[in-house]
């Protein structure tokens, strides 16, 4: 094989990789139709997107029968959930090897559940963006969150594996496995998309990416009102 042929093969492979990467970020699945924005005069629920520095959280006000929070305070006024890599998020291993492993090797995941009483805008010291969902949209999002917990044979979430990071909170074993292309921020985007919100999970690698998408939707909504 000549040097020119080797170069052509290399360039062809490189082009294929670049096309695959571009296709991944350009792909944006449509959310379920008819859920967002909520139709006039339908029951709505507010979801709060919490933009932690590198991490996305989703919070909401609990209603009767939705005892979803940490066991110590399941019926708390508010609950926030977040999903992430078990070793980095739960064990707190923020070493370079741990970050590289989380980025390139699929690994075990956890859910963080926080119960609290204050309004999310007061409880969190990070940007909080409210999103109005229809009740049907919220139930879709709620189902997506519940499906992320590892469960027993009865379908109940497993016992907490450890205390959480703030508020009354716990960590729980979760699914699927964590990977850089499907991280805490793309998971939150996928949950919102299930609720009908027109966000693109593939373009939400960072928390600020998802925050920008939500702000753009809010601006469009204000412009149409």
Number of helices, counting only DSSP H or I runs of 4 residues or more: 7
The rounded distance between the terminal residues' Cα atoms is: 65 Å
Strand order of the largest sheet: 5-1-2-3-4-7-6
Low-confidence stretches: 17-24
Which structural category fits the helices and strands?
alpha+beta
Give a description of the structure:
The chain is α+β, with helices and mostly antiparallel strands and 225 residues long. The chain folds into two domains: 1-30; 33-224, no CATH class. It is built from seven helices and seven strands. Strands 5-1-2-3-4-7-6 form a seven-stranded antiparallel β-sheet. A hairpin with a 4-residue loop joins strand 1 and strand 2 (56-61). It is globular. It starts with a helix and ends with a helix. 34% of the residues are buried. Residues 17-24 have low confidence and may be disordered.
